[in-house]
Amino acid sequence: MASEGVLLGMGNPLLDISCVVDEAFLEKYGLTLNNAILAEDKHLPIYKELAGRPDVEYIAGGATQNTIRIAQWMLREPKATSYIGCVGKDEFGDRMYKLASEGGVNIQYDVDEELPTGTCGVLVVKGERSLVANLSAAKKYKIDHLKKPENWVCVERAKFIYSSGFFLAVSPESMMTVARHAAETGKYYMINLAAPFICQFKDLMELFPYVDFIFGNESEARTFAQVQGWETEDTKIIAVKLAALPKASGTHKRVAVITQGTDPTIVSVDGQVTEIPITVIPKNKLVDTNAAGDAFVGGFLSQLVLGKDIVECVRAGNYASSIIIQRSGCTFPLKPCFQSE
């Protein structure tokens, strides 16, 4: 059984505006599939255009929030997880709070009264997705909110703390504060590379010594390797190098986890590499790959906080991901069918 608040997530809460589009729509806005970007001025009309479509869906999103919601769903213990981020004082913020908290997550939103709640355009073409995030109020998150006693207690209670790399674009100070806290108290601090452009952030490398688990997919891992000048695209070598980067604390050996779509998941710790196969979902059952990576991490963390071994964590991650890609957006059945071994 998971203890209350054992897992904390900090990130950018975004209301996903999801719609099936054609390739011409992507070309119109200069977008590509299987990528995630921050919206520029030229992308802003996307949200209104999507909202006007009859098949549009609104789903509580944002990478870290997706992961925490999935972990909570898998754990089935009320308030085993907590989540911190910033929304606007508006209908979208209220809607997202309801969507995110109804599964049992302890939601601690900061509320900004100036900017609207952040949104993410989720453009789906033949099951593949392109994400365009307009952070809006999410980018207003400040460390002052984190330090309030009613919010800091979430940090103190947690044994595992997770953020997507996207949060580096908003509050690297908050991430560094909790990362240092984790190192000082023997907790686990975990991040996700999130998207290729995040790998170029200077703040990422300043944070890295405090990272105990690093997640990413193959394209993110290869971009990270390129930025570091490692001159290899071999994901197994990259995983070993990620795990071997210097650490601030020797309490935990860093674990690197790289997903590769339908290819085996790569895990590296202490110079060793393990390849763990996945169960491939037939293409005719594929609905939407949005949040597949977030779901993998959520499933993984749901077993990690219970003390399960890495193979079992990956098995849970693959299960959660397989459920998500057969549905629209980060949605899931009332109860999971996963059985721990």
From TrEMBL:
Residues 25-334 form the Carbohydrate kinase PfkB domain. The keyword ATP-binding applies. Pathway: Purine metabolism; AMP biosynthesis via salvage pathway; AMP from adenosine: step 1/1. The keyword Kinase applies. This is Adenosine kinase. Its EC number is 2.7.1.20. One of its GO terms (molecular function) is ATP binding. Keywords: ATP-binding, Kinase, Magnesium, Nucleotide-binding, Purine salvage, Transferase. It comes from Physcomitrium patens. The active site is at D294 (proton acceptor). ATP dependent phosphorylation of adenosine and other related nucleoside analogs to monophosphate derivatives. Its cofactor is Mg(2+). It catalyses: adenosine + ATP = AMP + ADP + H(+). It is an enzyme of class 2 (transferase). Belongs to the carbohydrate kinase PfkB family.
